[in-house]
Design goal:
Number of strands: 17
Strand content: 15-25%
Order of helices and strands: EHEEHEEEEHHHEHHEEHEEEEHEHEEHH
Helix content: 25-40%
Shape: globular
Distance between the termini: 33 Å
Number of helices: 12
Structural class: alpha+beta
Radius of gyration: 21 Å
């Protein structure tokens, strides 16, 4: 199989993508022919040298570097299928794409739409579900409608920020309805970029300024005294075939994040090796484990997810209630990432996980190709 792995990108999670992509490449079966495409922080695509592939395979602790040779700039050709990627002087044949891209321009529906136009199979959620789940507010609306409790929240838009009287009203309403402490986060950013915890009006004001530097919509949520529980899910929630096990929607044993920071921020996730203790599986009763798993599947199905996702929950320490937090449609594949750890402890090894995702991507593409698009 010819597999193209794409990484980097115009995102605050650019460096994390380089680490995830390296792990994914090492998890690919030896018989696969691998092509590497790196995207710069400015958004330009470049074919990466074969020497970079060999370096990553030999050094299990290394992450990708990004090389920019003008003769190797990559172009995407609409409707070209397996020949959709090309440089100035060659076609880069591929059977399936693994876009190891996190956050903005990676899991927000933009590259998914591009790959749909190129008519090539790709790992992960579709354009619609990627775009929907990237928006934390819209995701909560859908999940709440599906009967899953969500943390109380208020959404603030930049247009409201620009109206001083309206802003003051919403600012006070958030305090009155939600109360301190509270979390402030961009609606469409990943890895806790721009997220802050506020315990008073001054911190709240600064937190809003930080969040609005990342997005035009900001979510203000109640800060629960909660345990952070995560659950990996794979499969195709829309066109799953009963005779293909890799398409079945499956939730794996959940894990728990125990941050040593104020909350599980970007630094705790990726920079500080002691930023959090990861418990896989989570220390929960068997009944609660099944509740988390069934709730994760319900969320996954409600959002029309496909390929993979990590569904995150809170368990309120005060009353034991389970709340949906958010969903990540291209979770990290770094050595400390929870997604592959939860799959592995449930019996799905890393290399088999990668193979499952590739097979699901191709099967989903083939199912869509059978649909009628014109008369």
């Amino acid at each position: 199989m010819k597999v193209t792995v794409i990484y980097g990108g115009r995102s605050g999670e650019h460096e994390i993508s380089l680490i995830s992509a390296a792990a994914i490449v090492r998890g690919l079966a030896l018989e696969n022919q691998v092509t590497l495409i790196g995207i710069t922080k400015e958004g330009r695509w470049y074919l990466q040298p074969e020497s970079e592939l060999e370096r990553i395979k030999k050094d299990t602790g290394a992450s990708f570097k990004l090389f920019q040779d003008e003769k190797d700039e990559v172009f995407v050709r609409p409707a070209a299928g397996k020949s959709c990627f090309a440089t100035k002087d060659r076609i880069l044949e591929t059977d399936v794409v693994f876009p190891a891209l996190h956050g903005t321009y990676g899991e927000d529906g933009t590259i998914q739409g591009l790959l749909e136009m190129a008519e090539i199979p790709y790992v992960g959620c579709t354009t619609l579900s990627s775009s929907l789940t990237m928006d934390k507010e819209k995701t909560k609306v859908v999940v709440k409608d599906a009967g899953i409790p969500v943390v109380p929240y208020i959404c603030i838009k930049r247009s409201e920020l620009n109206d001083s009287a309206l802003y003051d009203e919403i600012f006070q309403r958030a305090i009155d309805e939600i109360g301190f402490p509270l979390f402030v986060k961009p609606c469409c950013a990943g890895s806790s970029n721009g997220a802050s915890k506020a315990t008073n009006k001054k911190e709240f004001s600064y937190a809003l300024m930080e969040a609005f530097s990342w997005d035009d919509k900001v979510l203000v949520e109640k800060a629960l005294n909660a345990r952070e529980i995560e659950c990996s899910v794979t499969g195709n929630s829309v066109t799953c075939s009963l005779d293909k096990d890799f398409e079945s929607v499956k939730a794996y044993l959940p894990g728990e994040i125990c941050p040593t920071h104020t909350f599980y921020d970007f630094d705790a996730k990726y920079n500080d090796p002691d930023g959090a203790n990861l418990k896989v599986p989570a220390e929960l009763s068997s009944d609660l484990i099944e509740t988390v798993r069934s709730s994760a599947v319900k969320v996954y199905n409600a959002l029309d997810a496909a390929g993979l996702s990590r569904v995150d929950f809170f368990i309120d320490r005060d009353d034991g209630k389970l709340y949906f937090n958010e969903i990540n449609t291209m979770p990290g594949f770094t050595p400390i990432s929870m997604f592959p750890k939860m799959c592995q402890v449930t019996g799905l090894s890393f290399d088999k996980l990668v193979a499952l995702l590739l097979n699901e991507a191709i099967s989903r593409f083939n199912a869509k190709e059978r649909l009628q698009t014109s008369r």
